[in-house]
Every structure is written in C-alpha cells, then in structure tokens.
C-alpha cells in the first residue's frame, strides 16, 4: 500500500498572513518588526552605559512577552557581479577592463571559499486573548498555538487594535535607544519564513526583505550590537 504524504502546511502553525499580521491556527496574532543596528563599539563608555540603561528601562516597561530574533543568511552577490560586468563592457581602457575582469573573478572565488553572511534583526510582537507566562521561547515557539481561557472572546478588530498598541509601544521604546524600526509587510513576512524553512538556499535576488534590512541598517553596523 502506497504511503500517504502529509502536506508540510499541516506542521506549520500559521493560518495566513494578511495586512502585515501573522494569524495563527490557535487564533493568536503576531507582527514582525525589522530593527536596524547601532555601532556599539564606536560609542564612548558613557554612551554605551546610557544605551544599556535605556534598553533595560525599555524592557522593564513592557508587560507582555516579546521575542528578539537574529536571522543569519548567506548573501547573494550576483547583482553586484552583474553591475561589475556592465561596468566592464562600458570601459574603453583595455587595461581597466582586464583589471575589472580579474576583480570579478577574485570576488567570485573568495565568496565560494568564504561565504558572506548577513545578519538581520527582528522583533516579534505577539497578542493572545490571554497572556501566557512562558520562558525560554525559541523563534518557532513564538508561533506555537497557545491555550485559550474559556469564556474569553474578543473581536478580531479589538485584538488588532491591542496588537497595534503593543507594536507602537515596542517601536517607540526601540527608537528612543536610537534603533530604526520598520514593520514587515506580507511579502517580507512570507520571504522570511521561506528563508527559515529553506536554510540551505542563498538569499534570493531582489527580495524586499533584504532591501528593508539595508534601509534599516543604513550608516550602522548591526554586527556590533
């Protein structure tokens, strides 16, 4: 008798992604924020202490769980190499053409031997009908079904308003520290989960998540925070 394959979606707790909100099968909701970085090492000792104290105060002000998540991804450099080839074709000086060609080959060889990894920072803001105290949550645990308290029934609109209020609170707190925060849209959320479930693949070309990450990290070095 042939084995019956089970769809992968059955093991994913996400029901749908709509208007920047992740709806869970349990009825819970999540919003994802992409957070830029600051070059902590270049700050003076006094500035570092101020940043740490501000972050501590920020954590003490929130009364709900929140997840900080770092996503590492192998960078796709094909766009960059394509631009270099175009530059090579436009160059009239034969010596410079040769140098550009050698540079392209050097970059390609270097990346083949030493993968370039980009780090993107996210904050996951949850909302459930009832606050559940849980510790030691991993990334996927934040999207796991949560128990519902009998008799608790809130409309979707009211739940969305509460979630948006939490997002505003988190955004304001992080921006006061000097971090740039942007909410992810539907395409960016889908891309993030695609990358999570396909870790062996490199970052796709032209994806909106990478563009948003670059915008959030402009003039910063997130690896130092």
Give helix and strand order, one letter per element, not per position: EEEHEHHEHEHH
Number of domain modules: 2
Name the structural class: alpha+beta
* Main pleated-sheet profile: 6 strands, antiparallel
Shape field: extended
**What Rg, in angstroms, do the CA atoms define?**
22 Å
Number of strands: 6
Mean pLDDT: 79
Q: How far from one another are the termini?
A: 55 Å
| Number of helices, where a helix is a run of at least 4 consecutive DSSP H or I residues | 6
Q: Ranges with pLDDT <50 over ≥5 residues?
A: 147-154, 218-225
Relative strand content:
15-25%
Commentary on this structure:
The protein has 225 residues and is an alpha+beta fold. Helices cover 41% and strands 17% of the residues. Strands 1, 2, 3, 4, 5 and 6 form a 6-stranded antiparallel sheet that branches. Strand 1 and strand 2 (21-24) form a beta hairpin. The radius of gyration is 22 Å and the shape is extended. 18% of the residues are buried.
Task: From the structure above, extract its key features.
single chain; 225 residues; alpha+beta; 2 domains; 6-stranded antiparallel sheet; extended; disordered C terminus
Short synopsis of the structure:
The protein has 225 residues and is α+β, with helices and mostly antiparallel strands. Helices cover 41% and strands 17% of the residues.
